[in-house]
Design a protein that fits this description.
- By secondary structure, the chain is mostly helical.
- About 85% of the residues lie in helices and about 0% in strands.
- It contains 19 helices and no strands.
- Helix 1 packs across helix 19, helix 11 packs parallel to helix 15 and helix 11 packs across helix 16.
- The longest helix has about 55 residues.
- It is globular, with a radius of gyration of 22 Å.
Amino acid sequence: MQRFFFRNLLFLIFVNLLIKPLWIFGIDRSVQNAVGSESYGVYFIITNLSLLTQILLDLGISHYNNRLIAQKEHLLTSQLSHILSIKIFLTIFYLLVTLLAAVALKYHGHVLYLLFLVGLNQAFASLITYVRSNISALHHFKVDSMLSVMDKALMIMVCGMLLILPAFRSQFIIDWFIYAQLGAYALTLLTALIYVLRITGRISMTFSFQFSRELLRNTFPFALLIALMMIYGRIDAVMIEKLLPVDGEHEAGLYASAFRLLDALNQFGFLFSILLLPIFSKMIAQKKSIENLAASGFTVIHICAVIAAAGCWFYSSEIMHLLYKEASDYSSSILKVLMLGILGSTSTYIFSTLLTANNNLKQLIMVAAAAVLVNFFCNLLLIPVYKAWGASIAAVITQIGIGMTHLILSVVVFRFRFNKLLVGKLCLFALMSIAIFWGIKTAPINWMISLSLGAFICLAFAFLLRLADTGRIFALISKNPTE
């Protein structure tokens, strides 16, 4: 199963490396530079507001469905016909609640119009996630990988043209960006539906109160967990705007510029969880040991996280000035702190996924609820004094606390053995990575070369410690995945 995981993980990373960096740094970043931090800050705020109520679109259905279909594939057709009709009702309800919440928060005029469009984008994205949950549950990971980047590939083509042509770039507004997303999501959803319907055959959408009640009863814990995670992960932008009435939109824009890099790297952690949830679910159902797979997944993602965090800490100023017109030492300090949060979120992507597969939702909900309180009060105390930089500190405290808690819970629940050698190697790797980047930063060479060289040396050190075993990796990739 480790072989199967790593083969598909590498393919998933490959297609995402082709598309996601170009989208994030070529398109999304360019849009912010084109419209300015304040205008993009408004978009970032309403996007985060739409994400706070996003759980109403899904209510945990996709996570529950992925685990269910991975264990009972014969239920795919009946689940699909019922759930699609439920999703339509949830979309209408979500849009109403989101707009009412915006009105209550005193948003009005064109901002409400943009929020409605962003809400439609979230609705399409949620439908895509649900349809893809069926595809990944069937272990059609290569198709799922292609669908995971299709919307971004389409947006790169459309927005790229608008940003490259001078006649359009000079008039570019954030509305165009949202329209491009809407079209790309619609085409991706249509493609995903066609693929699934080729497997299930023709279906008739059926709405049943009894089925809906039973489904929502089963998915409620997933829904509550996801809602809490969304709150502590996305409330910061809204709080920045509300707690800083004078320059809140500008500060939110600066925070968004740093958050973009964290979000980009977190996407690769998210890829781990997409693959691991159905695999963990099936292994647990078959009563197979998951300790080696969990350890291997965490080791790989920890190596990447440490290199990313150390690199961004020492080269934050150079990175921000390369990417943004409005970069400053202040925005660089936000990135420097914010990127430390990846050390916690990477642990969450492995161990929260494992606990979800094992149905330890009560414990996960308690952790997430505590995280919401910690994050809210940290933001409440820090933002009025330190502005966006304070929000970045709150985010790091929250993410590292959650990551450590998920790790400890997994060790207790699954009775993992304490691997002193692995823990020692991981700690040594982290310390050496800091030393490597600190030392190479002083070298009289171009910063891009020194950053790349530092990352390469850290990676080589990981192989030297046998945290990443080349022989084992190539064996896992080259052998037949069915063995």
